[in-house]
Amino acid sequence: MPQLDQIASTYGSQIFWLLVTFGLIFITVGLGMVPKIGATVEARDKRIADDLAAAQAARENATSTEEAYRARTEENRAEALKVTQAAKDKSARDAEKKLAKADAALAEKTAAAEAQLRSAKDAALAEVEAVAVEAAQDMVAKLSGAKVTAAKAQKAVKAALANG
Amino acid sequence: MHQFQVQSIWDGFEIGGHQIAFTNSALFMVLTAVALWVFMLGGMKRELVPGRWQAAVEGFTGFIASMVDANIGPKGKTFVPYVFSLFMFILIANLLGMMPFGVIGVHPFTVTSHITVTGILAIISFGIVLLVGFAKHGFHFFSLFVPHGTPFVMIPLIFLIELFSFMIRPFSLALRLFVAMTAGHILMKVLAGFVINGANAGLGFAALVSVPSFALMIGITVLELLVCAIQAYVFALLTSLYLNDAINLH
Predict the structure, then answer these.
(1) Is the pLDDT reported for residue A44 higher than 70?
(2) CA distance B30 to chain A (A)
(3) What are the sequence ranges of the domains in chain B?
(4) Cβ contacts of A20 on chain B, cutoff 8 Å
């Protein structure tokens, strides 16, 4: 095995070159480069964590804003509902009042018209009676030549009208 | 066994009586360092939205960082650079040893298949554990060898056993990686030898030996790639576990 056969003649150079190369690696790579690369990774991790935190904060902010907006909308809707309800009630009351007024006026007019109608009817009826009495007198005079007094004729007409 | 041979490329220089030659082993260590450096450069764009390469690099660093964090806790952050260097060095050295450089006539060399290399890495890890342990807790560090609730009469025995299991750690750490890489490469070498020798011995042998060996070799190669990653992970994981002992005691 050359590793053991040659050990006496080669260990000096092996150790020397190992210390030189490994020392160089340790100084340039181990001490020089590794911490920098580690710092890069750490900076990136920190940046990602910060970005995530910022995104989380923005999201929470957006949620609270939306909640406030929703609450305000709800409030506004309730307010609007109240206002319209009040307006509706008022208009209903107004309409009732107007209706009552109009009803009263109409009733008055109707009563007046009815009274007029009644008097007109009475007048007409009285006229019809008078005309009928005259006509009855004339008819009796023409048919029988007998003269009927107005009072008698009136009595007969009244009886006839009452039956008719 | 030729693949484990250390060959000198440049005779080099002398330090304290030791000839420091630039060998194929050193070449692959340098290649490992360069490959790792190039790979890491792709992760240095530091963009907010990572590209594929940057994401791959961040995946590796994040993997080691989370492993260290899971095993040691927040105090382990200081050790991420070391554990990461260790993991990536072993991983890339393992993978470079598996590359089919033979296609272009170059012998790949697996740095981590040498006990010298894995031994030094284990000693560095163990040394850091000892340093951190004594620096943080002083002599109180020895309480690591006496678990909570040990009956008084048992303390000397338990202390010895725990001390022994503690002292064996660098050896098991070094041997595990060395043996896994060496054994894997030898197994592949043997299977490849079956394929080639069977094909040379005639059509019957080729059908009977080479074809099944080749099929097995494909599976073993994939398994070996898995072992490359697992051994690097085990080395880094055990190092962080030992560091946890040193930092948090029990």
Answers:
(1) yes
(2) 6
(3) 2-248
(4) 29
Asked whether B243 and B75 are in contact (CB, 8 A), the reply is no
Banded pLDDT at A62 (limits 50, 70, 90): very high
Token digits of residue B211: 């074809």
Interface predicted TM-score of the whole assembly (ipTM), two decimals: 0.88
Q: Over 80: is that where the pLDDT of B27 sits?
A: yes
Query: Is residue B194 within 8 Å of residue B182, measured between CB atoms?
Result: no
Helix/strand/coil (H/E/C) assignment for every residue in B165-204 = HHHCHHHHHHHHHHHHHHHHHHHHHHHHHHHHHHHHCCHH
Q: Which residue do the tokens 């190669």 mark?
A: B221
Q: Is A28 on the interface with B (CB under 8 A)?
A: yes
Whether the CB-CB separation of A128 and A157 falls below 8 Å is answered with no
Residue A57 exposure: Cα atoms within 13 Å on the Cβ side: 6
The answer to whether B126 and B232 have CB atoms below 8 angstroms apart is no
Spatial distance between the Cα atoms of B242 and B79, rounded to a whole number of angstroms: 12
User: Which of A103-107, A116-120, A123-127, B60-64 is the least confident region?
Assistant: A123-127
